[in-house]
Write a structure and sequence with these properties.
The chain is of the alpha/beta class. The chain is built from 5 helices and 12 strands. The chain is globular and about 65 Å long.
């Protein structure tokens, strides 16, 4: 059994709906959060527990409906992010990338080795299956790589948005790529889409799902049934991609 953290958020569910009284675990995915869902006849309140390894557990009575579960998660989202941030601060940080020959860097789900050269016409280039960087810039390598991810990500993500614009009957005003903290993307004022630069590190089908998700928000600001219907119409297999992102998005290696 995994050690548990005694940190949890609770509330009593409203009456409504009916579900069999089971103790078997299931998976509940709410945007970028994935919960091990446990229902029990012995439980009377909803409870979210953040485990020491960062995994999330949602315990609920059998009668709690999916709408109630999602509403509870939405209200507790700031608390969940705060607990995850605390764990990130306490967890030993992964070793930083070393900008030396042979170090691997992700791009659209694949790892490419770095090659340092005497000189080049750009701080970072992807050539012949390798990232190429002037040796003189290796000391500021992270800054240059993040800038490359942002620039390449903006072009790639904007291209995907253009591919889906007619199908989703929406035209984004623009695409920006930057550090968004825990969020993969957001829909800002003025019909503009924002994406975390790490989105371009994801496998292409998953990054594409992030684009479709945010474009659907241009129609529906909240995760209503109408929102998910728009996503499904544009991307019939979105659930598979969404579940992958919830399960593996945290494993994407940054810098």
């Amino acid at each position: 059994m995994r050690p548990r953290d005694p940190i949890a958020a609770t509330t009593r569910p409203k009456r409504g709906g009916s579900r069999p009284e089971v103790d078997d675990p299931a998976l509940l995915v709410v945007d970028d959060l994935s919960f091990d869902l446990r229902r029990s006849a012995r439980r009377r309140v909803l409870e979210i527990t953040v485990e020491r390894d960062g995994s999330l557990r949602l315990c609920a009575p059998p009668a709690a409906t999916e709408e109630q579960l999602r509403d509870f998660v939405a209200r507790k989202r700031p608390w969940i992010y705060k607990q995850l941030a605390r764990r990130d601060a306490l967890r030993p940080a992964p070793p930083p990338k070393i900008f030396t020959d042979g170090e691997g860097f992700a791009y659209l789900g694949r790892s490419y080795r770095l090659r340092l050269v005497a000189g080049a016409d750009a701080p970072v280039k992807l050539v012949g299956g390798r990232f190429v960087m002037p040796r003189a810039l290796a000391g500021e390598g992270r800054e240059h790589m993040v800038r490359w991810y942002c620039e390449r990500g903006r072009v790639w993500l904007a291209g995907k948005a253009a591919d889906y614009a007619a199908r989703m009957e929406v035209q984004p005003a623009g695409v920006r790529v930057q550090d968004l903290g825990y969020r993969w993307g957001s829909c800002g004022k003025g019909q503009r889409l924002y994406f975390h630069w790490k989105t371009i590190l994801l496998p292409a089908p998953i990054a594409e799902y992030v684009v479709v998700h945010e474009m659907a928000h241009l129609h529906e600001p909240h995760h209503t049934p109408g929102f998910w219907l728009r996503v499904e119409r544009a991307m019939p297999d979105y659930e598979r991609r969404r579940d992958w992102l919830a399960a593996h998005g945290g494993e994407v290696e940054g810098l």
